[in-house]
Fold this sequence. Notes:
The chain is about 45% helix and about 20% strand. Strand 5, helix 6 and strand 6 form a beta-alpha-beta unit. Helix 2 crosses helix 3 and helix 8 packs antiparallel against helix 9.
Amino acid sequence: MLDSTLSYDEYYSIAYAEHTIMNPLTLPTVREIGRRCGLKAGSRIVDIGSGKGYVCHEYAKEFEAHSVQIDKSPQWIAEATRLFADAGLLDYTELIEDDVKNIDLKPAEFDLAICLGNTPIFGGFERTVTRLLNTLRPGGHLLIGEAIVPEEVPAAYNEYLDELEWRIHTGRELFTIVEENEAEIVYFRRSTDQEWDDYLSLQWHSLLNFLRDNPDHPHYEEILDWLKDEQEQHLRFGIHYLDWGVFLIRSAV
């Protein structure tokens, strides 16, 4: 991100306008994960940074699972509320507009804990695994979506990630973190190139349309500069070195 008075939340409230799931992930994959978790009527889920609610909506619709969805964005909580209300599924979820740091997540409360692309909320992948494994009932699962880089990346890309203060682990590092937490990866799926392309292209389309329709917006130039920077860095480095995948994890003890 370039130096800007525009906040991360403001930028992505525009960028995610056209998304359902706010990650490079599809509903068929979400359903497959639900089956692998053994979700059923009465299963309890917590979703950290739940966004527009489509993952928990799918689990309510397909498995009659109940969820607690936590997101600090009033925009996303409102959209998730509409999604569940329109489907007649509001009884299957509790939507909490707050920072998860203010929420008391009790031990052994859930069958599935979800954190898709939001591990910085807890301070990174390792702290997320440690914190959320504790919330699971015996036999429960943890679903994390996380970016991954190979062992060797160009110095210029590392410098760019350092500027963003974005710590991305290699696959080996992520495996080691899970193992050190006495847990095991029972399912992993890397997003396809098409899923990545669709995810990012929707962002770019939303941002460009917003700029076209709001030429006098006070952050017009900042939004445009930020978008161009993300496009350039992705096409220069990301398509070659950045992956994203979901890890389904459970305790090994």
